[in-house]
Amino acid sequence: MNPILTKAFTAGAAINPYRIVQFGSADTTVIQATSSTDAALGIANSLGAQSGDRVDVCLVGIADCELGGAVTRGALVTADANGKAVAAAPGASVNARIVGVAMVSGVSGDIGTILINPTQIQG
C-alpha cells in the first residue's frame, strides 16, 4: 500500500477489511459498497470495523482491496455486492461508479492493489 490520504470515519454498519466503501447516512460515516452504482469513495484498511467503530479509509493513493472476480491490471474497478473490487462492465445506459484502476491482475479472493481514482463511466 502507498496511501497518500487516509481519513478516519465512523462505520455505519459492519465493514470487512480491504473493501470498497461509500458514504453512510451522515457526513462522518461510511458503509461497505454493495453495487457498481454506489458512490465509491475509497477502500477500508486491513482491520475493517464493526458498526459504530472507527475505520480508516484510503481516499488517495494505492490501497489493498479484496477482489471479487478476475481482474486484469489496468482495468477500471468498481464494487460488487460484497464491496469487493471487480472489473467495471456497465450495461447500456448504466452509470457505474469507479473506485480506481487495478495495479495487478488477480482472481476472486486475492488482495490486489488499486490506484484510487473515483469517477463514473457509462455503458
Oligomer type: single chain
Question: Which regions are unreliable across 5 or more consecutive residues at pLDDT < 50?
Answer: none
Elements, N to C (H/E): EEEEEEEEE
Output the strand order for the largest sheet: 1-3-2-4-5
Shape: globular
Query: How many beta strands in the DSSP annotation?
Result: 9
pLDDT averaged residue by residue: 95
Beta fraction of the residues? over 45%
Q: How many discrete domains?
A: 2
**H/I helix tally:** 0
Rg calculated over all Cα atoms: 13 Å
| Main sheet properties | 5 strands, mixed, barrel
Q: Give the terminus-to-terminus CA distance.
A: 30 Å
Indicate the percent of residues in helices.
under 10%
Structural class of the helices, strands and pairings?
A: mainly beta
